[in-house]
Every structure is written in structure tokens, then in C-alpha cells.
What does this fold into?
Amino acid sequence: MNNIHLEKLTWDTVDDVLKLKVSKEQKEFVAPNRDSMIDAYFALTDEAIPVSTFGIYLGKKPVGFLMIGYDVPWATQYYDLPRGYYYIWRFMIDKRYQGKGYGKAALQLAVDFIKTSPSGKAEYCWLSYEPENDVARKLYLSFGFEERKELWKDD
It folds into this structure.
């Protein structure tokens, strides 16, 4: 997976990432990239939440999207988590590129990025997934993330 890398989204690259989609069966698992961009914009402008958005690339071809926030207040309030953490807010691989190991490689790059403390020091990194998404669950557990079923919400 040497060709998998992250690139910060720019005016020149955002349109290609907006075209990426998951399969029809996965649409309930992750928000569309367009919605993620809107969330990132308002998080940055209205709440001054540090958010990083990346295209996941295989060489020069975009294959996925990643969004990482730092100390997201609503998430702290909603899940009663301690302050000072990174949040892998959105993570997706386009339906055409799934099952090839790109997600695993990209998640490693995300973790490596977080370890550089780009927005500040943190003791924790957390993420969420839909309970029905067994593929995501297995991937996250393989990276050492711990399941906290007491935090699951009905919505």
C-alpha cells in the first residue's frame, strides 16, 4: 500500500472527493462527503473546532475521504467523554476501491497523523460506527480501538 497517502483537501481537489460514494447497502453507515464538508465548514467557522479534511489517494487517484476533529464539544457533551481528544469524524473508501486494503492503510495514516498532535495534545482518539457495520468494527478493533457499547445511542 505504498501508494496510499493522505492529501489535505483544497479548492482543486475537493470536487473529485465529492464524487466518491459508498455502495447502496452502506449509505446508512456514513454521511455523504458533501454533508461532511458542510459539517467541517460550520465546525471551523461557527465553533472554531480544529478540523482536518483529507482525500485518501492511490497515487493520483482519489479513493476515499477522511475527516478528523479535535476536542469536538458536542461530542464531549453527547457522549460524556473527557475533553482533549481526536475524533475520526468521517472515514470512507469509495465502493470501487473497497476490499483491497486501502482502508486499513488509510486508517494507519490517520493514526500516524493524530500522533503528531497537529491541533494539540490528546490522551484519546475515538470514532464511531454503526453497529451493523461489521467490516468497520473489525477494522477498528484490529487497530486497538476499544468498543464502548455503553456509549451507543438510538440515533
Q: What stands out?
A: Strands lie at 4-8, 51-58, 61-70, 85-93, 124-127. The chain has a mean pLDDT of 89.
